[in-house]
């Protein structure tokens, strides 16, 4: 059985390591790589999450399509925002093992998603979560902040910054769950459009009010 060692291709950013479809059976101890932000390990034979503390600044981790049975050893990844563990063999989910900063989590295709109250349990454990198993989360802390009272242009800029930080992989090929990221992109864009529409409506109402007041002051 093989163990993974880091490599990347010239087509990807230097902050990305791609080791998908390499018949990897375990994640060996690697040299510390603080510059790595994205790690692809999908479609391998990995049975255990381990030794990822070699990438302390990891933001994006894809372990879809492996043989993982437990969520564990992720607490040393405080910056992790996107975690794809879909289509593994996770029967029971321990939410205490999930990094609290996660904003996107995919566990589809695991038996743990059949548990009673699964979705509520995960949402309660992850206050910044925006999307779970390709479905948006409503009313969470991250969304509440995004809906604050800033101007339309400020909101657009914040939306773009959030999307760029969350999804650096949108600009490079992605081979697993492409629709998942397309849907997320659409959801974020939809939120921005709704806020712009509301701001425009408020602007028009205010303009109408001012015109009516002006007409009253000037008289017939």
Topology (SSEs and partners):
Blueprint: E1 2-3, E2 16-18, E3 24-26, E4 38-40, E5 60-62, E6 82-84, E7 104-106, H1 118-125, E8 131-132, E9 135-136, H2 141-146, H3 152-166, H4 178-218
Parallel strand pairs: 1-3, 2-4, 4-5, 5-6, 6-7, 7-8
Antiparallel strand pairs: 8-9
Subcellular location: Cell projection, Cilium
Biased composition (Acidic residues): 154-167
Organism: Oriolus oriolus
CATH class of the domain at 15-137: Alpha Beta
Spatially, the strands of the biggest sheet line up as: 2-4-5-6-7-8-9
CATH superfamily of the domain at 15-137: Ribonuclease Inhibitor
Query: Biggest β-sheet: count, sense, barrel?
Result: 7 strands, mixed
Mean pLDDT equals 77
Low-confidence stretches: 5-12, 141-152, 158-165, 168-178
InterPro entries: Cilia_flagella_integrity, Leu-rich_rpt, Leu-rich_rpt_4, LRR_dom_sf
Organism: Oriolus oriolus (Eurasian golden oriole)
Protein name: LRC46 protein
Subcellular location: Cell projection, Cilium
């Amino acid at each position: 059985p093989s163990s993974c060692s880091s490599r990347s291709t010239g087509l990807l950013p230097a902050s990305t390591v791609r080791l998908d479809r390499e018949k990897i059976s375990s994640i060996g101890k690697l040299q510390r790589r603080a510059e790595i932000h994205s790690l692809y390990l999908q479609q391998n034979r990995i049975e255990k999450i381990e030794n990822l503390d070699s990438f302390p600044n990891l933001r994006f981790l894809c372990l879809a399509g492996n043989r993982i049975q437990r969520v564990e050893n992720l607490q040393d990844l405080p910056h992790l925002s996107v975690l794809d563990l879909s289509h593994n063999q996770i029967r029971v989910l321990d939410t205490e093992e999930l990094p609290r900063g996660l904003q996107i989590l995919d566990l589809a295709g695991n038996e743990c998603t059949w548990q009673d109250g699964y979705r509520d349990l995960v949402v309660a454990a992850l206050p910044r979560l925006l999307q779970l198993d390709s479905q948006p989360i409503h009313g969470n802390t991250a969304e509440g902040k995004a809906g604050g009272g800033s101007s339309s242009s400020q909101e657009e800029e914040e939306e773009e910054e959030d999307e760029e930080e969350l999804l650096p992989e949108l600009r490079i090929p992605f081979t697993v769950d492409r629709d998942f990221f397309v849907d997320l992109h659409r959801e974020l864009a939809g939120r921005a459009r709704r806020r712009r529409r509301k701001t425009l409506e408020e602007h028009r109402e205010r303009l109408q009010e001012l015109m009516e007041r002006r007409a009253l002051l000037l008289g017939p």
